[in-house]
Amino acid sequence: CNPSNLPFRGVDLTVDGFHTPFIQKPPRPSGRGGGLATYVNKNFCDISHIKIIEELSDHSTPSSGEFFTLEIQRGKGKNIILTNYYRSPNSDLPAFITRIEKMLSNLHRHRNKKIVLIGDPVLCVDTTA
Fold it and tell me: What is the pLDDT of residues 9-19, one digit of tens each?
C-alpha cells in the first residue's frame, strides 16, 4: 500500500529517521479499521533491502488476527524476518492461537535467519479466579 494513496496522503504516517512505513494492503478487506504498519530505521538498512513476504502476511480474516511480514537483507549478516501481528480484543482467541501456530510453523523454513515477532495479541488475563 502506497501511503500517498491514503485519504490523508500518508503525511501523518511519516516519522523522522525512518523509511516510509510498510503498510499491509489493503489495510483491511472491509476497508474499515486500521491495519498494520511496520517502520524500519533508515540507519538500519537501505529501503531496497526490505521486502514484504506475502505468503507470511495474512489479514484475510481480521476476526482471528492480522499478520504482516518483512524480510530485511543484511548483506554478510543473517537476514531478518520481522512479523508484525495484531488481534483485536473482541476477536476469536482460539482461532488466533491456531493462526499464530500456523504462522510459526511456516517460519520454520526461515530457521537460518533471525526471526523477530512484534505485535499486540491482546491477551487478557482474568485475575478474578
Answer: 556 778 899 99
Q: How far apart are CA 41 and CA 109, in angstroms?
A: 26
C-beta of residue 43 within 8 angstroms of C-beta of residue 24: no
pTM of the shown model: 0.81
Tell how strand 50-52 and strand 37-38 pair up. Answer: unpaired
User: Within 10 A of 65 (CB to CB), how many other CB atoms are there?
Assistant: 25
Reported as a single tens digit per residue, the pLDDT across 64-110 is 888 999 999 998 889 999 999 998 888 888 999 998 899 899 998 99
CB neighbours of residue 66 within 10 Å: 27
| Contact predicate 36/86, CB 8 Å | yes
Rounded Cα distance between 122 and 15, Å, is 25
